[in-house]
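Dear colleague,

Following up on yesterday's call, I've attached the two folding results inline so they're easy to grep. Please treat them as preliminary; we haven't cross-checked anything against experimental data yet. The first protein's sequence and structure tokens come first.
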Amino acid sequence: MFLHFKNINSKYALYDRHMHTNWTDGKNTIEEMIEAAEKLGMKEIALTDHVRGTSTYYNDYVRKIKYLRKKTKVNVVIGFECKIKNFDGEIDVNEEIKSSAEISIASVHSFPIGSKFYDAKKFHRDLCQDIEFELTMSALKNSKFDILGHPGGASLRYHNNFDLKYFEQIVIECVKKNIAFDLNYFYHFKIFPQLSKILEKYNPLVSLGSDAHESRHLGAWLNYFK
């Protein structure tokens, strides 16, 4: 399903495995995302809308995708993105959703402190990176999922930095656990020259993701891996 970093080529960029629709926080419908994929000549897209353990929409979501994918040549994969919810590495998804999905992403979105979650922007840059790293490593070690979503993304979004030593340790753990590293265009494009050296060194499985929240951003890596 996934390629190791050293094997990535232009054909692999035709597989976009991280995107969102208007079923959660995206702008476009499932139909519009599939149509955009068709126009780009994509081979595969994974629809990975956000879920929580309490989500109730997912059965209808699955039925909708199964119906629509019969009408397209694009391989449309049923997926989800859930948050890493505590420092024990648990992920916020229930067993019914996990069993219905064909691909799973776990990501750091906010920081659990006590019984509440806080935006990363509320924390000093260095502390933010430390917390995000600890949450990420705990999930890699203690939970099962296919893709580690946008590693370092919270720190990169709010502080424009995530220490390369943390990236290195995360990549090493991804290799150990056979979990794909989400090379996420939205978060990683600007730091790709530095990040690629670590990926080249350890050669983890990599999933290319646009993290598109609009159809016009789908397949973002196509312009890079030519």
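Below is the second protein, in the same order (sequence, then structure):
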Amino acid sequence: MQAWERRTAAIHEAGHYVVALAVGSRCVSARIERNKVSSPDERTWIGSAESFPFGQRQARQRRMIACAGSVAEFIYNNEGDPPDPDCWFDPEAMSASDWHLTDCAPGCPDDSLLAAIRRVGVMLDIDGPKWPKLMLVARRLIIDSRKENSPREQAA
């Protein structure tokens, strides 16, 4: 289960990373780490991604970056199927922070967000040119997380 959650976190953050680069962000970073909150309701792996200049982007680009992680997860978990528009009416479809960045209330996507989700779905098509980059970034995040969460570093 933890390996699946680590891979899912990596796919999610890699989605943000790849789309941010595709829409012209100059400085992009992403990472995943073991969740320090020990609650059965919490994921064991979490992550974050940042892109600059995020706030200066057009609303359409910000929404594309914000939804990209969840769109990447959807495509990965559904064997390459494009994102189903009905799924985004579930408040759990994205994290609270990703919903916030879309300027939509959780579970209440507007037409502009649904259009961004469709665009990102096409961009991250599993047979398209961006998917291999997404998988490379996800692998790098997993490898980097192993280094950061090694027993030697945890004891230090």
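For the second protein, one point worth flagging: Confidence is low (pLDDT under 50) at residues 151-156.

Best wishes,
A.L.
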